[in-house]
Amino acid sequence: MKRLLIAYIIAVLAPLAVRAQANIQPVAQANDSTTFRCTIENAEYQVWFDIDFYGQSITVPDAELFGELPGYMGAKRDPRKWLITAAELTSPTEAQLEIINDYGSEDLTASLTLLPDGTYQLRQLEGSTLRIVVNNKWLKLPKTLVLKRKPTPSLSKGGE
């Protein structure tokens, strides 16, 4: 009777497991693409993003205690960082992001999309607004920000 029950369970669950396995689409491996493994910047606001959504291996300079992350945003005129704590690829050219400030007091969700012209578009969807300090005053970044890929990635080197 036990064998029959075990055989029945295997017969019922095996196809479900195979189907579930087929539906699991892992986030791309580190060597699959470089679409979301690069440094992108916006010259107008002097901000950059160091990202690796595949291996999630970015260490934030001077904030190593956070460990390896999918990325962060830095600014040339502000030492504070915004940390990308989660990045989920929703397509080969789009990712959904969870971002917090380095104090953990503000957070937001955003999308990052590679556009056909090769630029990236960051859209702040919900939560806090990305902001930086410029001349001792807070400057809110626009809800939609266009970024360009740096010619040579400088991951984890402060976007310089």
Task: Report on the architecture of this protein.
The protein has 160 residues and is mainly β. It contains one helix and twelve strands, in the order αββββββββββββ. The protein has one helix spanning 2-23; strands at 37-42, 47-52, 58-59, 68-69, 71-75, 78-91, 94-101, 107-114, 120-127, 131-134, 137-140, 144-149. Strand 3 (58-59) and strand 4 form a beta hairpin. The relative contact order is 0.17. Mean pLDDT is 82; it is low at 4-32.
Annotation keywords:
160 residues, mainly beta, 8-stranded antiparallel β-barrel, two-stranded antiparallel sheet, 12 strands, 14% helix, globular
Short description:
The chain is 14% helix and 46% strand. The chain is mainly beta and 160 residues long. The strands form three sheets. An eight-stranded antiparallel β-barrel has the order 1-2-5-6-7-8-9-12. It has a two-stranded antiparallel sheet with strand order 3-4. The chain has a two-stranded antiparallel ribbon with strand order 10-11.
